[in-house]
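Hi U.,

Before I forget, here's the chain from the pilot set. I'm dumping it here mostly so it's searchable later in email.
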Amino acid sequence: MDEAVSFTAVVLAGERTTPSTDPLANAAGVVSKVLAPIAGVPVIERVLDSIERCDVVNRRMLVGPTARTLAAAPQIGARIESGTWSWIAPTEGPAASASAAFDAIGTDGHIVLTTADHAFLTPAILEDFCRKSLATGADFTVALTRRAEVAATFPRTRRTGWHFSDDTYCGCNLFAVLHPAGHSVTGFWRHVEKERKRPWRLLRMLGVGMFARYVAGRLSLRDALAELGRRTQCRIAPVVLPHPEAAVDVDSIDDWRLVNETWTRLRG
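Structure:
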């Protein structure tokens, strides 16, 4: 493996709710949504398999799931026991869990971060993102897709859209830390993660001027990330992927049904 393009992969597999209050887990009949079956395979297993087959990943870390979930999924425990994956306990939210993972890994090397419900993640998507992230020269990158492409491919899904002057984008739950300065982004992330489904509130946190430009349709994606980078003291760049499926996760019962149907059709 070329060390210049080798990454440590981090998968966030914590749970925001308890099994008894998670509608998706209840609908799927599992103790955690990360075990929701997608065409017969738990969604987390699909993510782990894709990462293990990705040539640019040389280390792997799971943040979560909880001991209760691991007890119900011995196949995940076997990956940890074999040393294929390291494991640390999840904390109170995704940003704090990501920060804990970054602290455990240290500042040497590159990190690619995703979530355990990224049902359409493939080795090709992951490698494409990692290589394009390195090409930006930034400290931290975020993967996006064009919302029009997502809507054309999955007309039944509803994704949060970021309406910038150049285009409207959807997030892909893929991030890369390329230099030590990129670790600082988790501090801002912890501050705003409760507003992740409300783009206008997040933009308002960047200041009145930025928010006014966003509302008026005059704020570009790069300008928004440049301001976020100024506030976090690192260089942040977007990576726009030509993979609309990368924007679809399994975060609700409707998402689960859509992804299940899609995978079953592809398998058939």
